[in-house]
Amino acid sequence: MLNSDSDRVDELLKEDTMKHLNRREFLKGAGSLIAAGALPVSLVKVALGAGSASENFSFAYISDSHITVPAKGTSVRNWDRGLIRAVAEANLLTPKPEFIIYGGDLAQLGKKEEIDLALELMAKVDTKVYYVMGEHDYYLDLGKHWESRLGPQWYSFDHKGIHFVILNSILTHDEWTHSKKWSTPMDRMLAMARLDNPSGSPFMVGEKQLEWLKKDLQKVSKDTPVIVCSHSPLQKIFKGWNFWTEDAEKVQNLLKPLNKVTVIYGHVHQIQYNQIGNISFHAVMATAWPWPYPQSYTQQPSYLPELTVQMNRADPFFERDATGWQFVNMRTGNVDMHYQLPHNQNRSVVFSAQAGKPVDTVYQPAEKRIQPQTHF
Are 358 and 349 in contact (CB under 8 A)? Predict the structure, then answer.
C-alpha cells in the first residue's frame, strides 16, 4: 500500500527514475520516438512532411490508471505503480513531448481522494497535460470534483497546425443518471464501474455536446488534420461492456467532411484499430490492467473490427502484462502505432496508403497470427 504523502510520491518517482536513467542516453542516441521499457506511455509524433505549413511536434498519451483508495491514507500499489512509472518514463523521453494527453479514468470510483492522488502523481510530469473524462471519474458526483480541478468536460485547442478535440463520450440518458433507483451516488458509480454492467447504460456524447462539436468544426478547414480524443471508442464494438458509444455515427458524420481524422481512445485496455471512411481509430493501453477481448471471454457476438489482430495474453502472475505502451508516428495526417509489450511480441500497426487503412505489419495475414486465449 502507498499513502499519498508528497514526500513518498517523490521517493517512488525517484526510485523509478534511477532504474531508468541508463535509458536516457539510449533515447538521446535514438534521436526520435523510442521510449525504452514496457510502460503504458504513448509518444505521438506529428510529422506532416515537406511543404506542409504545419510544424512537426510530438506529444505523449497516458490513460486508465484507476487509482484506488480503499481507506484514508492508503491506495492500491499495483495501480499507483503503473502511473508512477509512466510519469517517470514520460519525463525521460527525448525529444521531450510538448504536452501529454491523459485519456480518462484517473480514479476507480470517482472519489475525491482518488482523483486528488492521481493528479498528485500526474503533477510530477514536467509538461502541460490535457485531460479526458472517463466514466470512473464521472458517475459518483457527475464530474463535479474533476471539473473543479481540471475545468470543462469537453473543449478543443490548436497546436502547430493540428486541431485537437477533447470529448466527454461517457455520458448517458438523463433518466438513467438521475433515476430514483439509486439509493446513493455510489450505487450509480458501482453500476457503471463493472465491466459487465447489466444495470448500466450505454455511453453517448449527447445532443448538447454534438451541437458544440458541429460549431467547433465549422471553424476548421477540411485540410487541417484533426485528432479527436475520447474515452470510449467512437464506434460500436461490444455493448455489454460499453466498448460502445450510442451516438457514434452522429460524431462520425460530423467528422466526414474533413480530409484527415484520427480518433484516439482509452477505456478498452487493449490493442484495437479500425478505419471507417476518412477516420482512423486507435486504442491506447492502460497503466492499470488489461481487459480481455469480448469474444475471448463471452459467447455473445461482438463487433470488434475485423482489422484488429488480438493480443495473445495475459499472464495473471505478472502485474504489468498487457499494460504495454506505444509510441505513435504521425505522417501526412495518418498514424503509425508501435506497441511495446512485456512478455509479448512487440506490435506495429501502420497506416497503409495502398490499403487505405491501418494494418498490422506482422500479424495481419491470418496464417501468421498467434491465437488468443479462450476463457470460457
Answer: yes
